[in-house]
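Troubleshooting log. The previous structure file for this entry was overwritten by mistake, so regenerating from the original sequence record. Sequence copied from the archived sheet and checked twice against the printout by T.R.
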Amino acid sequence: RLVGPDIIREMLGSLQDYSARYPGQKPVGMVVTTSKFTGEAQRIALAHGVKLIDGANLRAIAAAENRRSGV
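Regenerated output below.
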């Protein structure tokens, strides 16, 4: 199941709420999925600086960590 733009918009709302609660701090958003993101979700995330990690990225991160730790 692809992750669509609604999830990214939800993250943007959370970032705005955080900024309102903690003025002077710059929050960074990240959305992680074992699936993939739609093109629209990617476009919105890129426009607002939200980092995206999809299933392929997540597997690569896990594999690198396993190599590093000798698992």
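Residues 2 and 19 are 28 Å apart (CA to CA). Archived copy saved in two places this time.
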